[in-house]
Amino acid sequence: MKKALVTILATLTCLPAMAAEEVNIYSFRQPFLIQPILDDFTKQTGIKTNVVFAKKGLIERVKREGKHSRADLVLTSNFSALIQLEDENLTQAINSETVTKNIPANFRDPEGQWVALTKRVRNVYSAKDRVGKLDALTYEALADEQYRGKICTRSGKHPYNLGLVASMIAHHGEAKTKEWLEGVKKNLARKPQGNDRAQVKAVKEGLCDLAIGNSYYFGKMMEDEKQKAWAEAVYINFPNQQDRGSHINVSGVVLTKHAKNTENALKLIEFMTDNKAQNMYASMNMEYPVKPGVELSKLVASWGEFKEDSLPLSEISKYRPLALKLIDEVKFDL
Amino acid sequence: MQLSFSLSKWQSFAWLIGLSLSVPLMFLIFESLQPDSEVFAHLWDTVLWDYVRNTMLLIVGVCTLCALIALPLGWLTAYCEFPGRRFFEWSLMLPLAMPTYLIAYVYTDLLDYAGPVQIALREWFGWQSPDDYWFFDIRTLSGAIVMIALVLYPYLFLIFRTALREQSFKLVQASQLMGKSPSQSFFKVSLPLSRGAIVAGLALIAMESMADFATVHYFAVSTLTTAVYDTWLGYYSLTAAAKISGIMLLFLFLALTLERVSRPTQVVHERQSSVNSTTLYHLKGAQAWLASAFCWLILIAAFIVPTWVLADYAIDYFEQAWNDDFFLYAWQSLKIALWVSVVLIIMSMLVVFNQRVSSGKRVTLPGKLASTGYALPGTVLAIAVLIPLTLLDDKLNTWLEGSSFEPGLLFSGTIFALVFAYVVRFYAIAQGAVESSYQRISPSLDMASFSLGRNRFKTMLSIHLPLLRRGILTAALLVFIECMKELPAALLLRPFNYETLATHVFQYVSDEQLELASVSALFIVLVGLIPLYVVNRSMEQRS
Known about the structure:
CATH topology of the largest domain in chain A: D-Maltodextrin-Binding Protein, domain 2
Distance between the termini of chain B: 33 Å
CATH architecture of the largest domain in chain B: Orthogonal Bundle
Pfam family, one (chain A): SBP_bac_8
Organism (chain A): Pseudoalteromonas maricaloris
Number of helices of chain B: 25
CATH class of the largest domain in chain B: Mainly Alpha
Number of helices of chain A: 15
CATH superfamily of the largest domain in chain A: Periplasmic binding protein-like II
Strand content of chain B: under 5%
Largest interface: A-B, 56 and 62 residues
Protein name (chain A): Fe(3+) ABC transporter substrate-binding protein
Structural class of chain B: mainly alpha
Shape of chain A: globular
Family (chain A): Belongs to the bacterial solute-binding protein 1 family.
Strand order of the largest sheet of chain B: 1-2
Largest sheet of chain A: 10 strands, mixed
Keywords (chain A): Iron, Metal-binding, Signal
Helix content of chain B: over 70%
Helix content of chain A: 40-55%
Number of strands of chain B: 2
Distance between the termini of chain A: 60 Å
CATH topology of the largest domain in chain B: MetI-like fold
Radius of gyration of chain A: 22 Å
Oligomer: heterodimer
Strand content of chain A: 15-25%
Order of helices and strands of chain B: HHHEHHHHHHHHHHEHHHHHHHHHHHH
Radius of gyration of chain B: 24 Å
């Protein structure tokens, strides 16, 4: 009976003979962002890449699939997802000298459970005509009374804002951060909505004077015919330059615990941390490369040098659940 | 071949369907019974009640608005003659093909503070800032209600109109002879007679709006769906998320039970349907124009404007937005939609037939069990489907260990997962449409058929099936189009490199780059038009 079933199943499914060389990826990042890099990888190595993209639930999927999972890599768009994957015990160490050489220690897990691939800054944009450039701006100042009704941001629960709030907790503690959040909420020009681009657009239209947003959106808007006008209406400011530096978030990658194509997966990770791919991230997606010495896109370079908050991401990430709790408590999104 | 099943066989079919479609839900309930680390209590103390209130308002708002749109439209196009009636009969169903997330994006782009409409107004009147004037804010609860109602009203329109067409027109004629005005016969005869259909339509709309995430999220309106996602993805607590889903299902059961309790015990069955054009009301003058204008208004708002904006983007961004793989994506969407439609028609027929021929208190239970998937937000349903399927895969792999064949993720890693998820999610639609059609077939027909020696199976095939034609077509159409549009489950459950039109659209929409998604979005709408056309053609035949 078992034998018969095996034969039937085998014929019925006729699983396509697995391509000899491939690597399977679950990606939180949109295919149009990563495909050029993957294509280049395939061209160079002959290794085929297979992708499933989703914004939600991929971690749960890897978890439920367990040891049968076909995913070799998970690409994430923020550091909390990296650390959640590690915490849920879904990763294995990335043992590669190339990676260790390419990526500075504060941008990979001490045990190699995850590696960051790109950096982005949580900037504050200011209206050129009404506010001007704000070189001395701090995140803390966003709660000041002078900005009452003048700030726009996306949902407080978005990973990028949660990361920022978590870093505030890490620096100032829970009580101070809650006070700060209440202040920022009072300063909002409208209920948090839209994505980071929409905030810059709102500044351009005069709905608010300051907007919180990631750096690469600014670069990408500059490249879009229609959105260029929005981006040109604002200055990009790097907060907290006089003290700890600006908050940064990263996109990254993990090697799954039950990866079947480990070698190929490692090859891809190495490729993604190396000059070519890092440069592609920088030039096409306006992100900051993680590998030192890789050239920035001209546009990004024109924003100037800045100081980064050096608190390790794993430290900040501890406060993420608390950050979400505070957002709920002050009803930031409501 | 002589096919005949005993009554207990029919019952076991129904129960088998009911139970297997509710397996994902069972796992979710099991999950919700696990202890969770205070997350639920924290939500209870802070935002949960705001969410519950918003959810209630959303459901009530959408249902009311849908009723206000769909009931007059259905009655007008079924019973009245006015300029453009034939055109509106089918064109008013077009918004079905428009995914809610697209219409929400399009209208926000248009009506936002930074959108062309308000910019034009500001330039026109010289206003400088938002303080200078008032404009209705689309990103609000009421905005969400309007958006969702605009794409969901066709459910009610379609089901209500089918009911009207199947109802005997004689009753309306009788009320006319007794001196009732058209509007009086609408309220006194047509509405009460179609109660079952109206409730079925509204129940679908209520469930769909409760499960909506894309629109409310985009409009920054926090509902219970938001809470489900927050707890699961933010607090990492699937357990608390499952608890909140439980609350949502409670709503659902409450609503369904209320409906059953309040349903009149007296049932009106039709003996024949006899609508023909000579018996229609002929609207004249202002009335006729008003009817036309109302139809145009809805059609323009719900379909023409969004399609036009998408087409406009598509022309401007064609080179960036075109993809040679579109036909493949369309085919993959179409394939799943066809599969699911066929499976669901068969399943819902079997379950509803059992309700008809069996008796007993629990006879409707299988159908209710199977319908629960519709009220769950898509991604939660996807996870709920994933849990039992991965377990099954694991068991299978363990069992086959050592044999030459290693199935891997045979159920959860293939297209099976997607089809299963859709069947679970959209069963309620199929049953709603088939059931409301079934209710109008008089049981005396069954008795006649039985006494003439036909068994149950033959009765179903040769007596019921032809009479149910419209109901079945309605069901197939609704399911098909829903499958084409469905997003969250498709995203999460698809195999590697499997792209449907909806998932392709989403990668751009999720980055708020509607322009780049415009061509594939138009494809979704176009492919949805095919079944609309086919079904409408065949509904109009022999009527």
